[in-house]
Amino acid sequence: MSTPNESANAIFEPATLGPVELRNRFIKAATSEGRSPNGRVTDELIAYHEGFARGGVGMTTLAYCATSPKGFSAPGQILMEKESLPGLKDFTATMHEHGAKASAQLGHAGPVATRQQIGETPWAPSKFINPTSFNYCRRISKDEIKTAIREFADAAELAAEAGFDALELHFGHLYLPSSFLSNWINKRDDEYGGNIENRSRFVREISQAVKERVGDDVAIIAKMSMTDGIPGSIVLPDSLQTAQMLDADGNVDAILLTQGSSVVRQMWLFRGEPPLAGFAEHMPFPFNVGVRMFGKPMLGDFEYHDMYMYEDARQFLDKVKNTKLVLLGGLTQREHFEKGYNEGFEFFEIGRALLREPDMIQKIQEKPGYRTLCDHNNYCMPSVFGKTHCIYSPDYAMKAEDREIRPAETAGASERIEG
User: Could you tell me which of 17, 70, 99, 289 has the fewest CB atoms within 10 Å of its CB?
Assistant: First the structure.
């Protein structure tokens, strides 16, 4: 544990993550971008991340890179296949030009996918109906489990070839790997179901396959949900055991501690007021009416507060011995990072606040009392139906009717300084 004076400087100094040295401890979190209409890297996607690299992050994360055509969770995502390699190389080269490292988030949507998106019935550990999309998901077979594991390893190898410094294995939010960890979805009676050791088998096998494929060439991060806010699904005591197993296996360099689900009660991840009007405007009748009337119980309504994942994340510090821990969730000012570092967290991921201010890291380094302009209104959430962005961004002009449903920026916020 560090002293306050040490942490004030250490969070901005170079830090080692597996075989990689980052210029500081700040990582741009993966937030679906919607800038890859044909499953390929575009100039617009590169420019989007270039802003975070120029703004001072140690590493930026390319989201969401599907390991298979069956693994898409939304339109406009990267498909990890050979044809994507030239664009991926351009992406990493550009981030490196600005002194930032690049991470690729590798995922398979599983029960988060829809038949309309992937053209077939989505996979889940057991037969399952997604309560948000109403899509039926079929039980994945053991042979298909082996296929999914191999596809993660193939994607990891491609990312390493493209020059990515790190791989983020998406084991959270009830995507396919995470759904195996959930007692709510996973009703299997074989070696992949039942107790937490069996339910953790899939993520451990993915991690091992990826490590065997890429070796020590890149850092490997496991993103896992501590809890998901769904009764009987992913709970903290089980997650602590999964983290300990991943730690003991030695196949990952860091564990990124997240919360929530992309299946139901999605606001457990984001916290704050659910942006119902924003979601409704992207949906046809009668779904838009349903969202306005019943969206809050479905999405959940959980109060936002700064560092809202901190207390749960602290439980992992004395359980995980050899693997570095990454803190996420409501990190809005320098004192939050210093507090987390003093407690034992090695790296910090930031999502919404960097959408609002790509140069946030530079600002908090120059002005210790600075607090991000992000007000966590959550209207970046429905923006994923197009190109993910902060609604205050000058690059996105709002229609008159949008202004009526979207919160106005606080007067004088551009100079909001605290402390």
Answer: 289
Contact status, residue 195 vs residue 237, Cβ threshold 8 Å: no
CA–CA separation, 252 vs 161, rounded Å? 19
Give the whole-angstrom CA distance, residue 193 versus residue 188: 4
Per-residue pLDDT band at 386 (split at 50, 70, 90): confident
Cβ-based neighbours of 135, under 8 Å, separated by 6 or more:
111, 113, 114, 115, 121, 122, 129
Q: Report, in angstroms and rounded to the nearest whole number, the Rg of the chain calculated over CA atoms.
A: 20
Q: Indicate the pairing of strand 219-225 with strand 254-258.
A: parallel
Please provide the distance, in angstroms rounded to a whole number, between the alpha carbons at the two ends of the chain. Answer: 24
Helices 142-161/85-97 angle, 10° precision:
50
- The alpha carbon of residue 6 and the mean position of all alpha carbons in its chain are separated, in whole angstroms, by 29
pLDDT computed for residue 296 by the predictor: 83
Query: Helices 85-97 and 43-54 meet at what angle, rounded to 10?
Result: 20
Cα separation, 321 vs 316, whole angstroms: 9
C-alpha pair distances (Å), 87 with each of 38, 80, 118, 158: 12, 11, 23, 12
Q: Do 204 and 241 touch, CB atoms closer than 8 A? A: no
Which residues does 315 contact at the CB level (< 8 Å), separation at least 6?
A: 226, 236, 240
The H-assigned helical ranges of 262-416 are: 267-270, 276-280, 287-299, 310-314, 334-343, 352-356, 360-366, 400-405
d(CA 249, CA 256): 16
Amino acid at 318: D
Residue in 375, 234, 225 with CA at minimum distance from that of residue 309: 225
Model pTM?
A: 0.91
pLDDT digits (tens, 9 = 90+) for 32-43: 898 998 999 999
- Pull the structure tokens for residue 274: 């659910």
CA atoms within 13 A on the CB side of 290: 9
Q: Are 419 and 363 in contact (CB under 8 A)?
A: no
Say which of 175, 192, 310, 370 is annotated catalytic: 175
Nearest to 258 by CA among 199, 193, 316: 316
pLDDT tens-digit profile of 31-72?
989 899 899 999 999 999 999 999 999 999 999 999 999 999
- Tallying the residues shown for the chain, one arrives at 419
The per-residue pLDDT for 357 is 94
392 catalytic residue (yes or no): no
